Amino acid sequence: MTEQSTDERTRIRAAMDRLLTGQPTASDGALTVVALAAEAGVHRMALQKRHADLKAEFYERVRTETKQPPESEKRLRKTVSDLKETVAAQKAEITALRHQVTQLALANAVLTHQGRRAGKPPEEVPDNVVPLHTTGG
Description:
Distance between the termini: 89 Å
Keywords: Coiled coil
Coiled coil: 73-100
Region (Disordered): 114-137
Strand content: under 5%
Number of domains: 2
């Protein structure tokens, strides 16, 4: 390990301690990799690529020491929850629309049948009514 890498790791571990104790000096104090990188004074990609083990250690410490999931996990859970609500609403809408299609088809059939019973020729049917043609009927 190079001296620079050792120095970065030391700064990252010190930044972890500051964030987890709620005493940030160079970041917003969020329990995220972005805040950890800012707090340690390293580039975020360096933290995620060269020091992936420290990133994993940070998230593990967030879970164990704060008894809460990391911010990224909270955001993902919120997104999943929102998407589940959207899917449920869309399923309800699809069910309602299918019911409406059935009702409209039945109403059209009734109107067509009533028109035939009344003896109206097809040309007397209003323009907005589409007659259902049956074979042999």
